[in-house]
Specification:
Length: about 110
């Protein structure tokens, strides 16, 4: 059985996102979406990536204002991962690209 290579070990862009996320404590969905290597496209890989961020204490937000508001009012450990908006945003990240933008505009 082959040993699974972690995404952060395989892709420099993922390493850079983790470093940035650890520095700030969060990332923006657009930063993640824009930085993902083209090879990372399966839902399993995206889920692994999001799990890696969570494991490193990195939250993902829609924009700077959302990040600031959430971080000012709610401790990261108490944020609801099962919140419908959080689930929608995760789904949007999975879809990537132009579909992401279309759905994001409909949500707002």
């Amino acid at each position: 059985m082959a040993q699974q290579v972690l995404l952060e070990e395989k892709y420099e862009a993922v390493k850079a996102l983790i470093v940035l996320g650890k520095e700030r404590g969060y990332l923006l969905y657009d930063e993640v979406n824009d930085s993902l290597p083209a090879e990372v496209h399966s839902s399993e890989e995206i889920d692994d990536l999001l799990t890696t961020f969570e494991r490193n204490g990195i939250e993902i937000y829609e924009d700077q204002a959302s990040a600031k508001a959430a971080r000012d009012t709610v401790a990261p450990a108490t944020m609801a991962a099962n919140d419908p908006l959080t689930r929608l945003r995760r789904s949007m990240l999975l879809m990537r690209g132009s579909v992401h933008a279309v759905i994001g505009n409909r949500v707002h």
